[in-house]
Structures are given as C-alpha cells and as structure tokens.
Design brief:
It is built from 4 helices and 3 strands, in the order βααββαα. With 176 residues, it is mostly helical. A 3-stranded antiparallel beta sheet has the order 1-3-2. This is Replication protein RepB.
Amino acid sequence: MPKTIRELADELKVSKQTIQYHYQRLPTKNQQKDSQGTNMISLTAERIIRDKVAKPLVAKDQQTGSKKVTKTSKENNELIATLRREIEDLKSQRDKQLATKDQQISSKDRQINHLTKLIDQQQQLQLTTVTENKELKEHVHKLSDLIEISNPGQKQQVNDKEDRTHNNKNWWHFWK
C-alpha cells in the first residue's frame, strides 16, 4: 500500500528531507501523487528508497564498529512479501496480454482461412471461365467452317439464279 513521505521517514527513522531527496531522484514512473496532490511512495519506490537509505546506515555502522543490523527480519519479510505481490501482479498482466494475443492470432487465422477459401473459389471460377471460353471458341470455329462449306453452294445457286434472270430479260427483250 502506498505511503506518504512522512510515514516512510518515521518508519526508517530518518528525516522527511532524506526521503524527499531520494524520492525526487526516482524515475518519473515511480513517482505518484494521490487525488489531493500529495506525493505517494509505491511499493517499488519504497524498496528503492529503503535500499538507498540503508546503504549509508550500514556504512556508518561499519565505520563505528557497531554490529547493529539496520534491517530486521520483519522488514526483510515485508520486502519479500511486497516483491512477491509485485511478481504476481506482473504475472497476471503477462497472462492477460498473452490471452489477448492468443485471441488476436486466432482471429487472424480465421481471416487467413477465409481469404484462402475466397482465393480458391476465385481460381476455380477463373478456370471454369477459361474452359468455357475455349469451348466457345471451338464452337465458333466449327460454325465458321460449316458456313464456309455451305457458302460455295449458295454462291453457285445465287450465281445460277442471276444468270437465268439475266437470260430471261434478254429473251423478253426480243419479243418487245
């Protein structure tokens, strides 16, 4: 649960200015404000600040020769619990993202299958059209051949008829 700068300072037995100093040097993603604009320290930010505040204390204790431990097992347990919660939250977020990606991939697979079917249908239709066009060309060619075969006879008949008409005109010409 987020804490205020005063709460963390009291807990670590340091001044508010010390916590404020380290808080201002955190990455902006770790700096939070509540609805009233008060700086709030998240669990991640608290861990970072604790590490920074604890290091000088350990160094100071080593210089004085004190065997005083700055972090108690209770604080360590709290930190471990906090980290475990963060890990669980991250795992949950990851699982949600993976589920979303799985749905998107499934949707894309359905789209690909649909488009593949449409392409197959289009290719079949095109093949049918090409086959029908070929058959029609062959039919037209056969009809053209039949017309050419039948045309010479028709031409001869037309020519004979024209000749008779011409001869008849000439014959009638003499009787007038």
